[in-house]
Amino acid sequence: MEDDFMPTIKQAKELIVDKKYKECEALLCTSMFEHPHDAIPHNLMGLLLESEDRHAEAMKHFRAAYALDPTYAPPSWNLECFGCFAMQHRCAYFESDCQFH
Prior knowledge:
Blueprint: H1 2-17, H2 21-34, H3 39-51, H4 55-68, H5 73-83
Helix pairs in contact: 1-2, 1-3, 2-3, 3-4, 3-5, 4-5
């Protein structure tokens, strides 16, 4: 599943790191519109919103992503990551990020 979205994931991560939030939001809104039943765009939107300190909205997108596909690891990983008072691990853009280092 992730392979289909690899360019979007990489671009979103780069835009978030570069703090190009409006451009990233446009990318992710388009992706959510084109793939309304896929978890990946919602997980990425959650990461974008967390980067903008919009925690409550971010958690909604992580929960939506989890509801759409409970087998896709990043949303539940990010719910745990951002749902704690002290971040216990790094956030997950990719499934491979869902491991403790």
